[in-house]
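Help wanted!
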Amino acid sequence: MQNHQQINHLKNIVQDILDEAVKQGASAAEAGLSQENGLSVSVRLGDVETIEHHCDQGLGVTVYFGQRKGSASTTDLSVASIKETVGAACSIARYTSEDQYAGLPDKELLATEFPDLDLNHPWDIGVDGAIALAIECEDAARSYHEEISNSEGASIDTHQGIRVMGNTLGFLQGFASSRHSLSCSVLAQRGDSMQRDYWYTVARNARDLESAADVGKKAAERTLRRLQARSLSTRQCPVLYCAEVASGLLGSFIGAISGGNLYRKSSFLLDALNTQVFPEFVRIHERPYLKGALGSSSYDSEGVATQTRDIVSDGILRGYVLSTYSARKLGLRSTGNAGGVHNLTIDPGKLDYQGMLKELGTGLLVTELMGQGVNMVTGDYSRGAAGFWVENGEIQYPVEEITIAGNLKDMLRNIIAVGNDVDYRGNIRTGSILVERMSIAGE
Amino acid sequence: MEILNLARQAILMPAGIQDSDIEKIMSRLLSSPVDAADIYFQSSHFESWVMEGGIIKEGTHNIEQGAGVRAVFGEKTGFAYSDRIELPVLLEAANNVKAIVRQGQEVDRSHCKVSMHAGDWPKHYALHNPLKSLADQQKIDLLHRVENETRKLDSRIEEVIVSLVGVHEHILVARQDGSLVADVRPLVRMNVTVIVEQDGQREQGSMGGGGRCDYNYFIDRDTALGYGREAVRQALVNLEAVEAPAGNMTVVLGSGWPGILLHEAIGHGLEGDFNRKGTSAFSGRVGERVASDLCTVVDDGTLQGRRGSLTIDDEGTPTEKTVLIENGILKGYMQDQLNARLMGVSPTGNGRRESYAHLPMPRMTNTYMLPGRHDPEEIIKSVKKGLYAKNFGGGQVDITSGKFVFSASEAYLIEDGKITRPVKGATLIGNGPEVLTKVSMVGSDLELDSGVGTCGKDGQSVPVGVGQPTLKIDGLTVGGTSV
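Answered by r_m:
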């Protein structure tokens, strides 16, 4: 009820902003407003390190004078500041050029149904409760093994907030959501080798978080297994991306089929629509209406309805990822992806993690990637990596200080298998992904 | 005093905050036996303009303002912030954060008295508002001119994207002794990206720069048009690039922005917080050799008008030129106040925060290596087979294992002492505590980067600078595809 009132209050402010924009001469306008509260508590070596109280708010407004556009934002929501911010956006629109593709979304694409997606579960843990839970988590990591030598600590973050957006086509919607996480990072030492790793859990409902003890234990296990890592000699071999890093591979794919890169012709997947991009068994789809998921939303950041849809089926690219502007530049319609994709999911295969290692046979299991190293224009890919050398499906030893390289076009086309060891912690949901062959550079 | 008055006018006066209000908030913070406390006020104005496809496509104006209240007790920190600079809000924030001190009784330190700090330290940039240094129409004209001139450079150019960004920021720090210090910080940046096409193959080139100055920087000395020429040159070189080699080899790094090597390989590992906690590969190694004796590396926040420079850091400590490595020996760490106090050393003016909504921590300013005695050509000549890496994108480091990466965006093979074919971009990976021990030649051509660096740590971004002379490293792993 309180949320409901607050959403209505913010809707009124957004409507006032839109009215102000029209009053200042704008032919169309769009505004978004967010308010968020949160608590972050971190502990280290069994004692409190930081307690942070978060309280954020922000307003963004975009105005159109015909085909000219201006935008402005502020953290100050006073009446005077709102007026000034709208004024700043209008003043900018005097200098931007006529752009025939600029403007609000097509009215018929705006969302009209707003199911409850079960996104708001505030966590009333309190400072003391959060400290206790974080200490329990860190203790579980530190007491796991004698080689756990130091800690970067454990932390709890809990946030809840409200987002409201509206435009002069009559769209005015808001919703409340929450997000909670627990993370832990520890160090291990054996001889001269010092390593650090971490684990985290995140959910909209605290009930869905992994237990503090499990998070601590996994952080410790992940750290210990890296000890005494070595480099590899330079070679070519198959590479298994574990689920946590496989999402980055799909992220690069999404970048290449995103409108902004397509209309700028800075994508390695230009004109790839309806062509074979992945092997035939691959299906990748968007699931915006999943209850309680991290990437769920019934509309995108422009108010356009999101779609449950296949982006790839039978390995063939079926659709792009478009906002209103990029769609118009390409002569297409928005796909409801202003602001990104929603619970992007690659269908899991039959193999679990152990099965995927067997499928890899002899090659590299990558568990960490470093640096950017992706050229979106050409698909050239070269990144720092750490992980494990695997022989006959069995992990042999940890490796580090190597790079893996290839071209994304080939890498996507040459995926051999997708595991069912899905990582649900992000907006991209994938199991581990096995790529047939990449170049490894090392000592 | 002028700076302090400007900051008060920009932040406190519009909010109606008086000195007596600051005294109240600070007294509230100090009513628990905290070791340190501060209130950080900030007001930032940011604008950006983007030209693309031959038109001025985007313009934005952002205002960010607020205050962060912090109390420190031992290794513990309590922190709260608000974008509402109002007395009741900040008093409540003070109540929340002083709860970090759980034991001990209330103490009477209600005598906090605000005093103006003269701020008679040297200033490393001018007070102008960069956003007003050109009229809006002049900014538009500048973008058009850069776009037009760049497009004319080559018929293979498909797209030119030019962006212009400016920030005018006032900060004011109230410290536990009641002293108020302030800074007014300009920051500008321009970037030109071009996409070229030849026989169906596309490539990209990008160049930009700026600093703590105003927009006239881009007009004077032809700077902006120079970015366009450089972006085109890089894109065209990349059209000719062949597969990069894979494996361990001798690498010659160019001068300037390749200094991101220092930032990643050793800079982060020498930040005070990691070393106090013993989590860095450099922990406890002051006095030890961590580089060849050709290497002297400093972090210097005092350079005039550079992107990474600060007159005072975000805790009010004047910045310094801090020697990190001298002739190969590790000399010291970069410190903020908390870590300096806990390690029993002096702060070095490296306490930085992204904004009032973030806690300060030790961060770099401008990190660079001093010049050596070799002619850069002589360095290339000395390499039988290797890689010459001239330009880089970003980098990353794991401070515990010491492993770092940085990605070359323009590189060439060196064969028999000559630069030959350009190769595709590739990531280079190495071990921080080891890489500088393999530096066998240092050029005389120290150059600082053009002013494009942004460093991320714990989710906080701050502008930084890097620099170095041409360097020869006897063995670094190059992540190409040509095995």
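OP: Thanks! One thing I noticed: The two ends of chain B are 62 Å apart (CA to CA).
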